[in-house]
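Sequence dictates fold. Next comes a concrete instance:
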Amino acid sequence: MKILSIRTDQPEAYLGLWNGRQMLTEKTWPAHRELSNTIHHQIEAILAKSDLSLSDIDGLLVFKGPGSFTGLRISAAVFNSLAFALSCPIVGTSGDNWQEQGIDLLISGKNEQVVVPDYGADANISSPKK
């Protein structure tokens, strides 16, 4: 089972590519405020490094938080869209062992269909100026 994992709750983003419980490759990059501009290129790059394409992915794993509102929102939106387009399962996990937990869930057949980020608090939305 080929699994793509992502964590974007910090300024440095992370992607992991797994074959079951065996890591094939991983990648980090300083995404910070450029995440929405770099995420698709980084996904393509990590897949190309292992001679894979998106159609080879059997499961998606998202670190769902808590963390940065924008970072978590972007990764969840991209991976939820990929899960729908590829018709593959998706799960979201948290904590120090998020990847191990998520891989176990995917291997056991779990599919959340949509991962909802956990920001750890209500979003801090400023009031309109007018």
In short: The CA atoms of residues 11 and 34 lie 9 Å apart. The chain has one domain: 2-107.
